[in-house]
Design brief:
single chain; alpha/beta; Elongation Factor Tu (Ef-tu), domain 3; Rossmann fold; six-stranded antiparallel β-sheet; six-stranded parallel β-sheet; FNR_bac; Riboflavin_synthase-like_b-brl
Length: 260
């Protein structure tokens, strides 16, 4: 395969399986790749072994912060998919291809003002929010951060320990009481977690009661990432409450991005 200037081969440096089908992987970082926390890049593998094999590309949000030397991604195996089953089989030392251009608008520069940042995710939609949380810029920008992660089963809670540590006084006393991590599990009961979908928890007021915070378009900035049904429902709910979707020429308090 001929060398390409738009993408390059990178080496897998780490694999971690949260469940048999949910995993994170790390790769080397292409020199010169610049991205903002919350963006995504395309990852590819050749469809075959031949010299002219077509590349299979899919977008993946970056978990790593812009300052990290390696790239980290968070994925779920789609059994009928062309790429994720192969990514799940990669080993440390294997090669994949990374696009040199970052995309996406799930970034802090979409907002003006604001005191509280709400990060609402389903499943692997948590990935860009991990990148944002690992970037010091967000902690200088907002007084409080609310991370709401909705999954089907308790064992699907990737990055649970890292999120818990953000508010642990032994890690950084300045972050205590600033990050509020809310777990939502939809198909089983989990101690300390809310039971139900984010949409229903918002509509009932249970999410606000659980955090002790009030959502307000004047002070709250909302980021949503996850499955298309959740995106559609939350777009309708928030816009009905007076949250304008942020645009390039007209920033607003609401930013949404589908995870697939």
């Amino acid at each position: 395969m001929q060398a390409q200037t738009k993408y390059s081969p990178q080496t897998v440096t780490g694999m971690h399986f949260w469940t048999p089908t949910i995993f994170s992987f790390k790769t080397t970082r292409p020199p010169g790749l610049q991205f903002a926390a919350g963006q995504f890049v395309r990852i590819g593998l050749p469809e075959g072994d031949g010299e002219g094999a077509e590349m299979i590309w899919r977008p993946f949000s970056l978990v790593s912060s812009p300052a990290e030397d390696t790239l980290e991604f968070y994925a779920i195996t789609i059994p009928e998919g062309k790429l994720t089953p192969r990514l799940a089989q990669l080993k440390v030392g294997d090669t994949l291809f990374v696009d040199h251009t970052a995309y996406g608008f799930l970034t802090l520069d979409r907002f003006t003002g604001g005191e509280d940042l709400w990060l609402l995710a389903t499943g692997t939609g948590l990935a860009p929010f991990m990148s944002i949380l690992r970037d010091p810029a967000v902690w200088h920008r907002f007084k409080r951060i609310f991370v709401v992660h909705s999954v089907r089963w308790q064992h699907d809670l990737a990055y649970y320990d890292e999120l818990k540590q953000f508010s642990h006084p032994d890690v950084d006393p300045s972050l205590v009481d600033r990050l509020h991590y809310v777990v939502c599990v939809t198909r089983e009961q989990m101690p300390g977690a809310l039971n139900g979908r984010v949409t229903s928890l918002l509509a009932s007021g249970e999410l606000e009661r659980a955090t002790g915070a009030t959502l307000d378009p004047a002070t709250s900035r909302i980021m949503v990432c996850g499955n298309p049904d959740m995106i559609k429902a939350l777009r309708a709910w928030f816009t009905d409450k007076g949250y304008a979707v942020s645009r390039t020429a007209m920033p607003g308090p609401l930013v949404l991005e589908k995870q697939w």
